[in-house]
Amino acid sequence: QVQLVESGGGLVQAGGSLRLSCVVSGGTFSTINMGWFRQAPGKERAFVAHITWRGDIIYYTDSVKGRFTVSRVNAENTMYLQMNNLKVEDTAVYYCARFRTGSIYRASGYDYWGQGTQVYVSL
Q1: CA-wise closest residue to 95 among 72, 74, 71, 79
Q2: How many Cα atoms sit within 13 Å of 80 on the Cβ side?
Q3: Residues of the chain with pLDDT under 70
């Protein structure tokens, strides 16, 4: 059984930083592509970042480019999302997910999800 567990969310002032972690158990983490999504209140779940299994190809949504960095340590079955210069509009529940097939930008392309971690950015 594949399980994903996020951590690292919290309350931070605008301009601050947080690092999210996603630990994956079950499956073979080192051979799977992974993604980060976020869901703000009243909105659909939205793509944030995607990283291939070797970590050599990475995609970001435009609004986080230059501020967020996705990375992974396969030996630790862990993916990270370093978030710098956070803005109020980054407030959301952040989810990590295992990519399965289809578009990397759509939630339907991912088959296993974590429970989410709340990020709240205040003025």
Answers
A1: 79
A2: 12
A3: none
